[in-house]
Write a structure and sequence with these properties.
With 164 residues, this protein is mostly beta strands. The chain contains one helix and eleven strands, in the order αβββββββββββ. Keywords: Signal.
Length: 164
Amino acid sequence: MSKRHRVMAVIAVVVGLAVAGPAAGAAAVAYATKSAPQVARGYGSTGKTYGSWLAVRGSSTATSKVTGARYKLQNADDHKVYVHLKSVAAIGNLGPYEKSSKSANGTRESSGWLDVASQPVHTYSVTMKPVRVRVDAVVKTCLDIPARVDVCSAGKALNASLSY
């Protein structure tokens, strides 16, 4: 490998770390991928999703959210698929503060991937500074089954540390 190629490889690695790392105030992590989606199965239906989880450092907020989520649904009986996000934030030695919500239901059957219409977002107020905020999250794919308990995938645990 030439010296130029080695330098370009090092630059690519450094740029990749800067984009993916939490130091810039945001840490994006795939909770599932298109080739390995989360899968929820139950009562004859199958729901699949993939996307990313993002922890964002605002000037006086910490935000935990699902972004870029897409779904597929094989529907047996008026079932719907959704993404469930549970976030817990510890602001310094205060907390934990827990929030839980789900995306809009995906209702259309499709052999291709469809966008999830609205995705869960949890915002926490950060009033004391300097402080470190730890955000933990679990993202699951679930089937909304009318008149029964929803069926969910195992979920993926994620976390980020944000400095203020």
